[in-house]
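Lab intake sheet, docking and co-folding queue.

SAMPLE TYPE: protein with bound small molecule
LIGAND NAME: guanosine-5'-triphosphate
LIGAND FORMAT: SMILES
REQUESTED OUTPUT: full 3D complex as structure tokens
PRIORITY: normal
SUBMITTED BY: R.K., bench team

The fields below were copied directly from the construct record.
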Amino acid sequence: MASYKILISGPVGSGKTTAVSTLSDIPVVKTDAKPTDGVAALKDSTTVAMDYGTIDLGDGNKVHLYGTPGQERFKFMWEILVQGSIGLILLINNNHPHPLRELELFLEAFARSIEQIPFSVGITHMDECPRPTIQQYSQLLAAKKHVVPLFSVDARSKEDMNLLVLAMLSMIAPEIALENFKGLTLNAHPHHLRYTKRQRH
Ligand SMILES: Nc1nc2c(ncn2[C@@H]2O[C@H](COP(=O)(O)OP(=O)(O)OP(=O)(O)O)[C@@H](O)[C@H]2O)c(=O)[nH]1
Ligand SMILES: [Mg+2]
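RESULT FIELD (auto-filled):
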């Protein structure tokens, strides 16, 4: 029986709370509050402490999933929540004015952690704004010597979010990820991870 703590972080409105809700097998613990600052123009509610949910992996194995607040003024929570995490998922909202810069900001904020734990990156809102492209993100990550799973995802899509978690698990606990995870299978090669949707019959 094993449990894995995975943290989801990223800027305001990138879909962290949505992702925890999409993925969790239990009702999510949220700490959403009405924004009192500039965020009010963007959203009706924002996370002020954390989101929490779990994913049941079978055989008693569990993922404990935490979401951070996006606002930098709650940065102290990023540091608290990353403690004990064995994987980090960064979600970036492509429909923001400077999403590449936001990715850089979060890579810097979690610099110490990502030296030690694996991370993956999901780009949300690409349906609303196709640029920058995945290739541009890939180039930015490569320039910083990060070889990590990178996907375009919709935080509302269970399949998309499962794929991101599967990518995390393949680095943290390959024995679980390689078996079969929520209808997705992983074709792994050390330098070449490929994630495919299982054929439906
Ligand atoms: N169009 C579109 N909407 C999305 C996508 N992913 C998430 N959303 C929506 O974007 C919004 C994201 O809101 P939250 O989940 O509260 O974002 P958050 O990252 O938790 O934000 P903070 O807690 O304020 O930092 C929700 O309304 C989602 O339904 C996507 O890929 N495309
Ligand atoms: Mg939130």
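REVIEWER NOTE: The chain has a mean pLDDT of 89.
SIGN-OFF: pending second check by T.M.
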